[in-house]
Amino acid sequence: MRFRLPCLALLALLLAFAQPAAADDLADEADLRFRLGAEAFQRGDYRTALEQFLSSNRLVPNRNVAYNIARCYEELKQFPEAFRYYSVALQAETDTSARGRIERALVAIRQHIAVVEIETSPPGATVFIQRKDLGPRGNTPTALGVKPGRYLVLAELLGHHPAQVEVSELGAGQSRRIKLTLEPIRGTVEIAASAAGASVRVDAASSQPVCQAPCELRLSEGRHTVYLERAGSAPAQLEVNVDANQRQTLHPELVLLTGTLVVSSDEPGALIEVDGTARGFTPQVLPLAVGPHRVRVSLAGYKSESREVLIERDTERRVELALTQSDAVNAASRSTESVEDAPSSV
Description:
It contains six helices and 22 strands. The chain has 346 residues and is an alpha+beta fold. Helix 1 (7-17) packs antiparallel against helix 2, helix 4 (63-75) packs antiparallel against helix 5 (79-92) and helix 5 packs antiparallel against helix 6. The termini are far apart.
């Protein structure tokens, strides 16, 4: 079944195309090629019309020209090519009636060809049929019209290993859906222990953490941004170029966020312990990492005092303690007891 292009329809397409966005030499030549193609089509010289329409479309791609190319291929019985250009025209067409006309043409052509519907994960891969040197056939997802037979479908995507699949014998009017998975070409990035405890994100600071340092990342080839975040430290980000099948190590140095703790007591010389570690004697000014800490102050003969403190960035926190004398003594039993319980002589 053929859908011949009426003269009025051809004229309408001609007028639509004859209004280029920019009146330059390229658009003028494309318009001329279109007119010559339209004249050739009207007199039934479909091969000459095809040559002119293809030249026009190379200069200025246009959905109307793609439709006319498909019509020429259909008249020449080159149905796979007609299917391809009808599909291109359909993707760009917005008019409902025009879309219906193209869809009917595609249905009519399907009885002469086999259709291979190709998807890839991830999408956007360039598709080749049989051999690369025959040229690309579009980007996934796509549906390709082919002559009945067996085919090798190849897919390539930058940063991924190529994939291919052999499609078994297809007959006219048959369809086959295939899906290819393209594995990323990866390299290894090691985050060293200098950033121990930091959560690691890749390519987006708001993404979910992928690991906690120290750890290894398997990243696709190319440039990436690594984000590091650790409580009490300033966040950091590093740019890294990942090479395929290569390993590299990052040694990020996270800068601690600090504040100041001033500890004093009414009895000088008391021992100061922060989180169980001795840090000096009162009075003392201590730089501490941002976050919660436990401070303990002790002095012989006095009760020890403990406080929970929260250190904030670039701020000073003061702890002033009044030590109370202990009522414990060393008794004759050589153990520490309260004054009331310790034995004494009269």
